[in-house]
Design a protein that fits this description.
255 residues; alpha/beta; Rossmann fold; 2 domains; 8 helices; 6 strands; 12% strand; globular; NAD(P)H_dehydrogenase_qn; oxidoreductase; NAD(P)H-dependent oxidoreductase
């Protein structure tokens, strides 16, 4: 497999930095090709602006329209175009980050904002039908996505009754709103808890867990999300009556 590993941690000597290095080593040893986007090392610009699209700053910027024009014309800034090429090449994408304020660091959110532009990440249509391709279909269909995250809190606090919310719900925006929306199959995440307090033994166990998960990157069962075109949603993108009656929330969107 071709694997794109997107790493977002400012400290290479952290547990996260060690996991990124060990993960790449394990994949290469298994015969996979790996490309790493180390966002902090790259000094990735996380801020969308007119320069991304060659847009005249004197004119009002409509981000969706400007990004689509630039994408279609091949005029996106070079750093965005390079990351899109990495995504096209990849069979699997790993998003690795520390969980800060129940989400990824701003630099990774900015990577998503700038790279997944109109026409590439969203607003993708089937030329034969005009149907919008999303939630199980899209430009990145056929690829797999894995979240690897280090978390300072204890595991129980992210359980079904944990104060921070269930981890599946916390990561729903990435699993469903990024991976699945663009067509990628989302794999169950790997979370390493108590990361700030990890000693040598805990770090070793985390590496072993990571290697085990990476061994199943091509064959593990993905999260069973409902596809938009599978018949479960009406024309307003609302789950049809009779499916999950009396319930609401992210869990409804699992088959």
């Amino acid at each position: 497999m071709n694997v794109l590993w997107i790493h977002a941690h400012p400290e290479p000597r952290s547990l996260g930095g060690m996991l990124a290095a060990e993960g790449r080593r394990a994949l290469v040893a298994s015969g996979h090709a790996v490309t790493v986007s180390d966002l902090y090392a790259m000094r990735w610009n996380p801020v969308v602006d007119a320069a991304d699209f060659g847009h005249d700053p004197a004119c009002r910027l409509h981000v969706g329209a400007a990004s689509r024009r630039a994408y279609d014309a091949g005029e996106l800034s070079a750093d965005i175009a390079a990351e899109q090429e990495k995504l096209r090449w990849a069979d699997a994408v790993v998003l690795q980050f520390p969980l800060w304020w129940l989400g990824p660091p701003a630099i990774l959110k900015g990577w998503l904002d700038r790279v997944l532009v109109h026409g590439f990440g969203f607003g993708v249509t089937d030329p034969a039908t005009g149907r919008v391709r999303r939630y199980g279909d899209g430009e990145l269909a056929g690829k797999r996505g894995l979240v690897v995250t280090t978390i300072g809190a204890r595991e129980s606090s992210f359980g079904p009754r944990g104060i921070h919310g269930h981890l599946d719900d916390v990561l729903f925006p990435l699993h469903h709103g990024v991976f699945w929306y663009t067509g990628m199959e989302a794999l169950p995440p790997l979370a390493v808890y108590g990361a700030d307090r990890a000693d040598e033994g805990a770090a070793g166990r985390a590496v072993a867990r990571l290697r085990d998960r990476l061994a199943g990157l091509a064959c593990d069962e993905p999260l069973p999300f409902r596809s938009e075109r599978g018949g479960d949603y009406d024309a307003d993108l609302v789950l049809r009556p009779g499916l999950g009656p009396g319930r609401s929330g992210p869990a409804l969107h699992y088959r």
